[in-house]
Specification:
With about 130 residues, this protein is an all-alpha fold. It has six helices and no strands.
């Protein structure tokens, strides 16, 4: 079981890193480039992958924080996930953070209470995929 979980984590991280340069592309542009792309170096850099080719995004950062909580504590611990996200942010490695995380993560890394940040942009919380991190 553990090797399957590890394989899933690794597969998600690799897929995220390889797909990061394409994030936000329209389907017709993906179709155009799919037939012409030979190697990742052939890809025109769009700025959507600030860490460069092969660097994973905030999606994997969130997944690693959640996985770490589940492994270390054998449960989903919101504070542990928030602490892991803050620690990852403090490394300074470039990630493709959505606009809301670009605001919230520096606050979290500076010691702001994670419970307050969940509704930082909206009292109802978030409906975006990075809502877990906020």
């Amino acid at each position: 079981y553990a090797s399957k979980v590890l394989g899933g984590i690794l597969g998600q991280a690799c897929g995220d890193a390889l797909g990061a340069p394409f994030e936000g592309w329209r389907a017709d542009l993906l179709e155009q480039w799919f037939h012409r792309l030979r190697e990742m170096q052939d890809l025109p850099h769009t700025g959507d992958a600030p860490g460069g080719m092969g660097v994973y995004t905030a999606d994997t950062e969130i997944m690693l924080a959640v996985a770490g909580s589940l492994i270390d504590r054998e449960l989903f611990d919101v504070k542990a996930v928030a602490d892991a996200m803050a620690k990852a942010y403090r490394t300074g490695l470039p990630r493709a953070y959505p606009e809301t995380l670009s605001v919230v993560l520096p606050l979290l890394a500076s010691g702001e209470d994670y419970r307050r940040l969940g509704s930082y942009f909206s009292p109802e919380g978030s409906t975006h995929n990075e809502g877990l991190a906020r």
